[in-house]
Design brief:
81% helix; 387 residues; Growth Hormone, Chain: A; MFS_Efflux_Transporters; single chain; MFS_trans_sf; mainly alpha; globular; transmembrane; transmembrane helix
Length: 387
């Protein structure tokens, strides 16, 4: 039950970031702003997380891990509940930034407590269990927010998230041992500088999430434009995306264990295809069964490739970073959130200036840049293995 309690931490944090992604149209009407402006609420959350996470981790390193996690979950509960009662866009913007910034430690603290409470040979499995909270949130939490928000208004999605955060707080309080009850991990030596290869993988992470979130941040209006679906249909598509992401983690792990030489290049190609197939239909106004089929194919292929790349990069960084592993993996997490935030901002801007087809087109172009980086990186890797 301890690992389940810790898994709820990334679950509720991820849910808070994207719980309203299927409700952008009704939120825009109620708040009196454009859909692209509402989408930037997700950017505020993600970018605040990327910027505040490393700073908070450094400034709170001497504090009790469990108490700090409980405080973080309390902040997430209160900020999400307050978001349910926000009356205007500006208030909601700062509440989302507050939740993303001060809640940024939820995931790394959960991982820290999971590894401290387990023997060394069990730590990889413990981390994988905690990380599963992210795809499970995309499968269950975010679609649930779309359904609740459709039935009771978008504010209800934030209230639901607050309830899940409170549930996580209760489970951590009861089921997770305090720092004094678990084995301590020695500080070790000072980490080595981040290598050039590691920096390239960090760029891969950034491009992966920036390109995909050009579309993901605007998934609600995109699905509605192509299929005519309301909140229930959007939730179904979000469920498919979550399942696809979970499958992608397994595929990425398999590709890496098989030492596939150009796996990242191939997966970026899949991402380009998943985004590119939507551009023409969105500009031509294609609606109905054809639009539904293309949307489903995109939702299946995009997250699969995205999470497969994430699994491969995470594994390669953990193996190659050496004494800089903690710094590198923490920076990789920041690249994920920064990519999410900037991707949503790029997609929203593209929507404003060039219409519904522009967000996936922008994402496809960024993913194409990812292909170029992946080819250079993997060609060098193959040559090093042969030499």
């Amino acid at each position: 039950m301890m690992l389940f309690a810790l898994m709820l931490c990334p679950f509720c944090f991820t849910m808070g970031a994207f719980v309203f992604s299927g409700l952008l149209d009704p939120m825009a009407r109620d708040l009196g702003v454009s859909v692209s402006t509402v989408a930037t609420l997700q950017s505020a959350f993600a970018i605040a997380c990327a910027l505040c996470g490393p700073l908070l981790a450094k400034s709170t390193s001497s504090l009790n891990r469990k108490h700090l996690l409980l405080s973080t979950l309390l902040v997430l509960t209160v900020s999400n509940l307050a978001s349910a009662f926000a009356l205007d866009y500006r208030t909601l913007f700062w509440l989302r930034a507050l939740a993303g910034g001060l809640g940024a430690l939820a995931f790394p603290l959960a991982v820290t407590l999971a590894t401290q409470a387990k023997a060394p040979e069990l730590r990889a499995r413990a981390v994988a269990t905690v990380y599963a909270g992210v795809p499970f949130s995309l499968i269950f939490g975010v679609p649930a927010g779309s359904l609740v928000g459709t039935e009771f208004g978008w504010a209800a999605s934030f209230a639901l998230t607050a309830a899940v955060c409170a549930l996580a707080l209760g489970f951590v309080w009861v089921k997770v041992p305090g720092l004094g009850e678990v084995a301590q991990v020695s500080a070790g030596t000072s980490p080595a500088p981040i290598s050039g290869e590691a920096k390239a993988y960090l760029l891969i992470t950034f491009l992966t999430f920036t390109s995909m979130f050009c579309l993901v941040g605007l998934i609600g209006p995109t699905i509605t434009t192509l299929t005519g679906f309301d909140g229930r249909g959007i939730a179904a598509m979000q469920l498919l995306a979550g399942v696809s992401g979970l499958l992608g983690l397994r595929i990425g792990a398999r590709l890496e264990s098989d030492r596939s030489p150009y796996s990242l290049t191939l997966l970026f190609g899949v991402m380009v295809a998943s985004l590119g197939i939507l551009v023409g239909p969105l500009y031509s106004g294609l609606v109905g069964s054809a639009g539904l089929g293309l949307m489903a194919l995109s939702v299946l292929l995009g997250p699969l490739a995205q999470f497969a790349i994430a699994a491969i990069v995470q594994t390669r960084l953990a193996v190659s970073a050496g004494s800089a592993a903690t710094l590198v993996l923490s920076t990789n997490s920041s690249m994920i959130y920064l990519g999410q935030g900037l991707g949503i901002a790029v997609g929203a801007y593209a929507l404003d200036i060039a219409g519904h087809g522009a967000p996936p087109l922008s994402g496809a172009l960024l993913a194409a840049l990812g292909i170029a980086v992946a080819v250079i990186l993997e060609r060098s890797r193959v040559q090093n293995q042969l030499s």
